[in-house]
Specification:
By secondary structure, this protein is an alpha+beta fold. It folds into 5 domains: about 180 residues, Histidine kinase-like ATPase, C-terminal domain (Heat Shock Protein 90), CATH 3.30.565.10; about 120 residues, Ribosomal Protein S5, domain 2 (2-Layer Sandwich), CATH 3.30.230; about 90 residues, no CATH class; about 100 residues, no CATH class; about 100 residues, no CATH class. It is built from 23 helices and 26 strands. The chain has an 8-stranded mixed beta sheet with strand order 5-4-3-6-2-1-7-8. A 5-stranded mixed beta sheet has the order 9-10-14-11-12, with helices on one face. Strands 17, 18, 19, 20 and 21 form a 5-stranded mixed beta sheet that branches. Helix 2 packs parallel to helix 5 and helix 19 runs parallel beside helix 21. The longest helix has 30 residues. The protein is elongated and about 120 Å long.
Length: about 675
């Protein structure tokens, strides 16, 4: 890549002496130490990226069609990373200058290759003290060891040793270096990443694995305004988990990093991932709101070499005004592509949209996904998400328009839903249905479109041919499935009982005699005190839209007929206001009783019998709310008076009086005799 440094001419008087600013030999040792050891945040990635990129650049330069080879192998007892190209190789002079001299590069005048600083060839020293270069050039294979050591400034310097040479008929360069066993996984991950999304031929292999990973083939390439958009699919939608090995590897290593992701590339290298690069926050936010890439799709956006500046480490793009201008151009281009892709999206009918409601996105042919809520508009999207069909059979139509049942806006919504479902089951019909409240809140324009498409019918209309039963025709003897619940049992008991049989079972549970007729059954509801005490036993809940409650104080069923029959006997519907009022009163009495029991327990520990006689204990269990509050005030006064006494007894009680002002519990292990002694003390 062309370096962007520009030298301006200097004008000075002939009489002025000048000297050139530079670096002495001592300073150059320290500078090279920083250039190889301090500029990379991920040294393993640097090794993979630099040597693989250089190998591909050589193939491009010499028009080599054979893939670059990159892999992991075992030599003796050590693991090795290697990259092998099959270009022309290098002479000894070139080896010593390219691998030995910083800022000497063949790329600094070329915008077809990445690089230009003469630093990448030394990347091996960022990870290890020694790496090896094998050159296959003009019939000779020469091996060189590039090692760190010596130096006069306290930092090691690089040395290049020629190790061996022998005849060969091959060409190219191989870079290799030993790696630690704990770094194998990291090397493997970066190598897979580089290979999978390479736009040039390169292969990855391991000695202990017969498979070879090759670059993915783009499913689509879009070109616009000087940018190329490569669309990759990590695996096919219908492929099994253990399909082709290279794609299984892609899923294993890159699913979490790349799925649905977009990243930027220059040359053959990924330099910025748009979801984690803070320098391009606006770009990332744009991608999140405008569209979505498919679930197993990756988009690589190729930036022309030289269009955006890179730091010397080449790890990412620089945060510069020029780079931000390029990003703005890229966002504008993406907007144009989105508009073009959206125009290709096939319009969907209301029926198709309702059938596809589980998906929040609509896909285009090039794997873009657009948010339904933005495409359809808020009103239409809410209608689609709130509309259902009863079953999977063909929808009933009137004048070629699908029938849409409008359900009422009241507590009977679940009843009519169940009734509609039973009707369709018994008559082999199917309807769309939606709550009337959804239709009432639509804009006039949206409602008009829906009205044109559907034949909207109130669910109570004659069209549905409901069977109307006369009063008093409830069936009390047909058995239905019911869940008999009890707070004393962990699981609700399943049974099949008629309305009258269930009623008698509840009576028997509280020691009452069973009844024989509906008239006798209704009489118990005249005893208000009995009902207040046991109303939960004679309550029923429809659980068609709810999960079964195992520890409820009421019975549960999915049978609408059983519910109607029980209500005809006088039972309470759990959803009714009457039940909720009784439940609220019960909750209040339960809380009051808990407070009474706690207070009695506290008083029994704290005060001797002389202060609170047994008959007063008994009154707590029978106290109404007003009487309870009266006794509560009296007991508090007794205790507070004792605590205020300026006596040994008062001081002692204040020490053991734990939490009285906040609760009626006492965790102190004092006996009644101990407390009597304290209270008798003055």
């Amino acid at each position: 890549m062309k370096t962007q440094a520009i030298a301006n001419p200097l004008i000075s008087s002939d009489s002025m002496e000048s000297s050139i600013m530079g670096m002495d030999s001592r300073g150059s040792e320290i500078a090279t130490f920083y250039l190889r050891d301090k500029i990379y945040s991920d040294k393993i990635l640097a090794v993979v990226r630099e040597y693989a990129s250089n190998a591909l650049d050589e193939h491009k330069k010499h028009k080599i069609q054979k893939p670059v080879s990159m892999g992991l192998r075992v030599e003796g007892a050590e693991h090795q990373f290697y990259v092998r190209d099959f270009a022309n190789g290098l002479s000894e002079f070139d080896i010593r200058n390219i691998f030995g001299m910083y800022f000497r590069s063949t790329k600094n005048k070329d915008n077809t290759q990445i690089g230009g600083f003469g630093i990448g060839s030394k990347a091996g020293h960022a990870y290890t003290d020694t790496f090896y270069v094998k050159s296959f050039h003009q019939g000779v294979c020469s091996m060189y060891a590039c090692s760190l050591g010596g130096g006069n400034t306290g930092v090691p310097v690089g040395h290049i040793f020629k190790v061996s040479e022998h005849p060969t008929d091959q060409t190219g360069i191989e870079i290799s270096l030993p790696i630690k066993s704990q770094d194998l996984e990291s090397f493997r991950t970066h190598m897979y990443s580089f290979v999978l999304f390479s736009s040039m031929p390169i292969e990855f292999s391991e000695d202990n694995n017969s498979s070879v990973t090759k670059p993915l083939t783009p499913k689509s390439i879009l070109s616009k305004n000087g940018f190329d958009f490569y669309i990759y699919k990590l695996w096919e939608d219908d492929a099994p988990f253990d399909y082709q090995k290279e794609k299984a590897i892609a899923k294993a290593y890159f699913h979490s990093r790349f799925e649905g992701n977009v990243f930027l590339k220059t040359g053959n290298v990924t330099y910025a991932r748009c979801d984690d690069d803070l320098n391009f926050k606006s770009f990332r936010n744009h991608l999140n709101t405008k569209f979505k890439i498919g679930s197993n799709i990756v988009m690589a956006i190729h930036i022309p070499i030289g269009k955006m500046s890179l730091p010397i480490s080449r790890e990412n793009f620089e945060d510069t005004p020029q780079n931000h201008r390029v990003i703005e151009q890229l966002i504008s281009t993406l907007n144009e592509i989105c508009d073009e892709e959206y125009s290709k999206v096939k319009p969907m009918s209301f029926e198709e949209m309702i059938a596809d409601k589980e998906s929040s996105f609509i896909k285009s042919e090039n794997y873009f996904s657009f948010k339904k809520s933005e495409i359809l508009g808020g009103d239409t999207y809410r209608f689609v998400q709130s509309t259902y069909n009863v079953n999977d059979s063909s929808i009933n139509k009137v004048n070629n328009k699908p029938v849409l049942a409008r359900l009422p806006n009241n507590a009977n919504l679940s009843y009519w839903h169940d009734a509609l479902r039973n009707l369709c089951k018994n008559t082999n019909q199917n309807f769309f249905y939606v709550s009337g409240s959804v239709l009432d809140n639509l804009s006039e324009n949206t409602f008009s479109k829906i009205e044109d498409y559907f034949d909207i019918k109130p669910v109570r209309s004659k069209y549905f041919k409901w069977t109307v039963c006369s009063k008093g025709t409830a069936d009390f003897n047909t058995a239905y499935e019911v869940y008999i619940s009890s707070p004393n049992h962990y699981r609700a008991k399943n049974a099949k009982l008629s309305a009258l049989a269930l009623h008698n079972k509840m009576l028997e549970s509280v020691g009452e005699e069973p009844v024989n007729t509906p008239e006798e059954a209704r009489k118990i509801f005249e005893d208000k005190e009995f009902i207040k005490k046991h109303f939960g036993l004679f309550s029923i809940k429809n659980i068609n839209n709810y999960s079964l409650q195992n520890s409820a104080n009421y019975n549960q069923t999915r049978s609408i007929k059983l519910i109607n029959n029980l209500i005809a006997l006088g039972w309470f519907n759990v959803e009714s206001d009457e039940f909720k009022t009784l439940q609220k009163e019960l909750d209040s009495l339960t809380e009051l009783n808990d407070q009474s029991l706690g207070l009695v327990a506290y008083m029994g520990k704290l005060l001797p019998k002389a202060h609170l006689e047994q008959k007063k204990y008994d009154k707590f269990f029978r106290a109404s709310k007003s009487r309870f509050e009266k006794y509560n005030r009296w007991i508090r006064k007794v205790i507070e008076d004792l605590l205020k006494e300026k006596s040994f007894r008062g001081h002692t009680l204040s020490l053991i009086e734990i939490g009285f002002r906040y609760s009626y519990s006492n965790s102190q292990a004092f006996t009644r005799q101990d407390l009597r002694k304290i209270l008798r003390t003055k």
